[in-house]
Amino acid sequence: MSDYMGMEYLRRKLNQKRHRVNLRYKYYDMKNYTRDFGISTPLELRAFNSSLGWCAKTVDSLADRVVFNEFRNDILAMNEIYQMNNPDILFRSAELSAMIAGCAFIYIQPAEKKNEALLVPVIYRPGAKRPFGHSRISRVNTGGHSVGKILEYYKIDVNVEDVVDAARKGKRHAGTYNDAIKKTEGQLKRSIESHSGEVSEHAEKIKHPELYG
User: Fold this and answer.
1) Between residues 143 and 117, which one has the greater pLDDT?
2) CB–CB of 117/107 below 8 Å?
3) pLDDT in tens, 106-122
4) Sign of CA dihedral 91, 94, 98, 101
5) Other C-beta atoms within 10 Å of 213: how many?
6) β partners of residue 121
7) Are 195 and 146 in contact (CB under 8 A)?
8) The pTM is what?
9) What is the pLDDT of residues 144-197, one digit of tens each?
10) Cα 22 to chain center, whole Å?
11) Burial of 203 by CB count in 10 Å (0-12 exposed, 13-18 middle, 19+ buried)?
C-alpha cells in the first residue's frame, strides 16, 4: 500500500477534470456558447443563439444501440441486486455519463455497513494513456461544432471544389494544398484533429480567460 495516493489525491484529480467534463455536458445539452466575433451580425440578433446538436448525436447514436441484458455466470446474485436499484435508469445513466465524460462512477454501499462503500468506475474506451477512458465528445466534435455554428451565424457559403481548384492552380491556399497531398490519410486525419483542437482551445480561452492566466 506504499503507492496509495489517498482521498486528497483523488479529489485533486477530479477537480482537474471538472472543467472539461462540465464543458462536454454543455455541448451534449446544446447549451454551449459560441462567441460573436462582431463581423456581420446585426445588433438586434446578437442575443440569438442556436444549436446544431452534433455532439448529442455523437453520443446518442451509439448509446441508443447499447442494451444491457444481464450478468452472466451470476454466482453473486448481481442480477437480483441490479433489479433492486432502479434498473430502468441505472444503466442508461451510467452509460451516458461514461460516453460524455469518459468515466462515470456507481456508488455501492451495503445497507448494514454504512461506513463501507465502493466506487465502481464505468469507463468508455480505456487505454494505456487514459485508463479512465475517452469521451465521445472529442476536440474534433467540439471544434467542428464551433466552426459549424460560425458558418451558420454568418451564412458563410464555402464551395470546397472552388477552393481546392484555386489551390491546385497555385492561388490561395496553394502551400496548404501542396503540403496536404504529400500526407497519408492518417496524417491528414491527425492534422484535422489538431486544428479542430486549436479552435476549441482558443474558444475556451476567449470564454474563460481566467483559467489561462
Assistant:
1) 117
2) yes
3) 888 877 777 777 888 89
4) positive
5) 4
6) 105
7) no
8) 0.59
9) 656 555 555 555 555 667 777 888 888 887 887 788 788 887 787 777 777 777
10) 10
11) buried
Question: Is residue 200 within 8 Å of 146, Cβ to Cβ?
Answer: yes
* CB neighbour burial string for 148-159, b if at least 16 within 10 angstroms, e if fewer: ebbeebeeeeee
Distances (CA, A) of 78 to 48, 73, 117, 141, 156: 50, 10, 16, 37, 55
Of 118, 115, 122, give the one whose Cα is nearest residue 94: 122
Distances (CA, A) of 199 to 93, 105, 164, 196, 205: 30, 31, 22, 5, 10
So what's the pLDDT on residue 158?
A: 58
